[in-house]
Automatic annotation (TrEMBL):
<keyword id="KW-0472">Membrane</keyword>
<keyword id="KW-0067">ATP-binding</keyword>
<dbReference type="GO" id="GO:0016887">
    <property type="term" value="F:ATP hydrolysis activity"/>
</dbReference>
<dbReference type="InterPro" id="IPR003439">
    <property type="entry name" value="ABC_transporter-like_ATP-bd"/>
</dbReference>
<dbReference type="GO" id="GO:0022857">
    <property type="term" value="F:transmembrane transporter activity"/>
</dbReference>
<dbReference type="InterPro" id="IPR003593">
    <property type="entry name" value="AAA+_ATPase"/>
</dbReference>
<protein>
    <submittedName>
        <fullName>Heme ABC exporter ATP-binding protein CcmA</fullName>
    </submittedName>
</protein>
<dbReference type="InterPro" id="IPR005895">
    <property type="entry name" value="ABC_transptr_haem_export_CcmA"/>
</dbReference>
<keyword id="KW-0201">Cytochrome c-type biogenesis</keyword>
<dbReference type="GO" id="GO:0017004">
    <property type="term" value="P:cytochrome complex assembly"/>
</dbReference>
<keyword id="KW-1278">Translocase</keyword>
<keyword id="KW-0547">Nucleotide-binding</keyword>
<feature type="domain" description="ABC transporter">
    <location>
        <begin position="6"/>
        <end position="222"/>
    </location>
</feature>
<dbReference type="GO" id="GO:0005524">
    <property type="term" value="F:ATP binding"/>
</dbReference>
<dbReference type="Pfam" id="PF00005">
    <property type="entry name" value="ABC_tran"/>
</dbReference>
<dbReference type="InterPro" id="IPR027417">
    <property type="entry name" value="P-loop_NTPase"/>
</dbReference>
<keyword id="KW-0813">Transport</keyword>
């Protein structure tokens, strides 16, 4: 059972203002803005290559925009990068499960890295991993790996979850558990930004399609 009481009481806005993203010398999107209050969710959609993963990396402070700003409570996130890193969980395409550590040890390791009180057993239990707690990461299936990566979200608290295709590889029941975890996180005042091509139940989530923000196609070459 995971707790749902209000644990994040920060009334600050998390905002992107007029963001421009360029990667490998090419414009990916321009003029992207949103604001996300406590308890809010943003659902990123868009065709392959429109910049969903890039946006999540920008929001995590792992990439810098070429224009615009990302603000927490009115302050640019790069003003205090340590504070921003401490308030978020970023879950990318790679699960980063340590192969020699057991499922339980993996969660302890991640929680210790964050220097936070860990809540390992409920996190394992929520994602139906209790029976696999002592199994080394290298022996887990792809879906079990993903569930363990998701269990990190619950094992140590962070106000902002940035999730890139979190339901890839999950069975139906686990997708439901993910939706439940997100709902409880939001009910406690947490925020979430999810990029996905798949259906994920997030009532009241704000949709943000990156399709409309793609740069215009290059003019046809004339030879
Ligand atoms: N490390 C990188 N260096 C240069 N360009 C990159 C890099 N990573 C991604 N890109 C480019 O940035 C653009 C956006 O990629 P991104 O992965 O953010 O898209 P996406 O919407 O998440 O795609 P998908 O739905 O396929 O996961 C693409 O044109 C891609 O080629």
């Amino acid at each position: 059972m995971i707790r749902s009481k209000a644990r994040f009481r920060d009334m600050a806005l998390f905002e992107a203002r007029n963001l421009d993203c360029r990667r490998g010398g090419r414009d990916v999107f321009a003029g992207l803005s949103f604001s996300l209050p406590a308890g809010g969710a943003l659902l990123l959609t868009g065709a392959n290559g429109t910049g969903k993963s890039s946006l999540l990396r920008l929001l995590a402070g792992l990439l810098r925009p070429v224009g615009g700003a990302i603000l927490w409570d009115g302050q640019p996130i790069d003003a205090e990068p340590g504070d921003h890193a401490a308030r978020l969980h970023y879950l990318g395409h790679l699960d980063a499960v340590k192969p020699v550590l057991s499922a339980k040890e993996n969660l302890r390791f991640w929680a210790a890295l964050r220097g936070r009180a860990a809540s390992i057993e409920p996190a394992l239990d929520h994602f139906a991993l209790s029976a696999l707690a002592d199994i080394p990461g290298r022996l887990l299936s792809a879906g079990q790996h993903r569930r363990l990566a998701l269990a990190r979200l619950l094992a140590s608290p962070a106000e902002l979850w940035l999730l890139d295709e979190p339901s890839v590889g999950l069975d139906h029941a686990s997708v439901g558990k993910l939706a439940e975890a997100i709902a409880k996180h939001r009910a406690g005042g947490g925020r979430v930004v999810v990029a996905t091509h798949m259906a994920l139940d997030m009532p009241g989530a704000e949709p943000l399609s990156l399709d409309a923000l793609a740069p215009p196609p290059l003019p046809e070459m004339v030879w």
